[in-house]
Amino acid sequence: MKATATVKETYQNGTALVEVTRKSACAGDCGSCHGCAHPEEHVRVTAQNTVCADAGDQVTVESATGAILGWASLLYLLPVALMLIGVLLPAPSESVNILLGMAGLLVGLLVCIFVSRKSKKMRRLTFTITEILSPGGLQS
Prior knowledge:
It holds the Pfam family RseC_MucC. This protein has helices spanning about 30-35, 65-90, 95-120, and strands at about 1-10, 15-25, 40-50, 60-65, 125-135. It is an alpha+beta fold.
């Protein structure tokens, strides 16, 4: 996955703090539909600074698409899958199936919360600055 970002700070260990402006799912064209409450979101991450970018530079940041898709599938599919398993298990009554479904959903959400917190500590999702688009924030 590629994104355009602005370098906010650089560090001695070869990393940089970058800010990515994420558009909404509808591409940020809220003037036409007036449906978005927050059309843009600013996300700050630490990235490997392999191209020696400086603060203020516009850069291209890349991350492993496979890792992002893996996390997304875990976060979206696991709770739903566990809920469906709970609902479809043979049970003496329909109310027991509903309780099993809710328990499966809860277990799935708890696993996602645990994995999300653990991954932040382990920093498995890494970002790399691959290209300087405009040095010092100047338009090229």
